[in-house]
Amino acid sequence: MTTNNAAVLLSVKDVQVAYGGIQAVKGVSLEVRAGELVSLIGSNGAGKTTTMKAITGLLPLGGGLIELAGRSIAGQGPWDLVQQGLAMVPEGRGVFTRMTILENLQMGAYIRDDAAAIDDDMARVFSTFPRLKERRDQLAGTLSGGEQQMLAMGRALMSRPKVLLLDEPSMGLSPLMVDKIFEVIQEVSAQGVTMLLVEQNASRALQIADRGYVMESGLITLSGDAHDMLHDPKVRAAYLGE
Q1: What residue numbers bound the domain in which 164 lies?
Q2: What local confidence, expressed as pLDDT, does residue 122 receive?
Q3: How many domains does the chain have?
């Protein structure tokens, strides 16, 4: 939880992204302040993942401005952005399946050379994800979907991000594992990590967020305090099945 006085760490202003002539994102603006957990919700095809890919340099901007800690990052590649403190856990996890859990986590810290601090962060990740510690020498490709999600989150945290982006972390998981993933997201947020969460499970996303944005057809159509949005009749009708 943070206050309105906290510094803006991630600023997205009038961002536009086109896919083969189709405007998928039509001028999105949002911001994430230090210490916040912000949820971006919306139906399938609204442009949420496209927005995340534009922020992380995986897709070129058609227009607009993206700033990290007050500096423009538009046009930079993901490898540059990790060094500047922006990490993403992509939809579908993206773990290195033929490497062990330990090796995946070490890859998360490849940009760092502070050995003692890396050891401390490894211990923190294993404390947050005890299941990963138990199986540290197991190949990532043999893990369940939920375990791979935990590993992807742990690997991103090993880069010590200023801002952590999570794209659909609950997708394809069992209800029990969804509960666990949202518990972990709350725990990581409580540790002070700033997060932008894209999530189709709008109710769960708003329950744990400080603020929220609703995206429809490539545009932000609603934003505000997450608790207020959770009780907004329009949001409840459109996204919470009421």
Answers
A1: 8-239
A2: 96
A3: 1
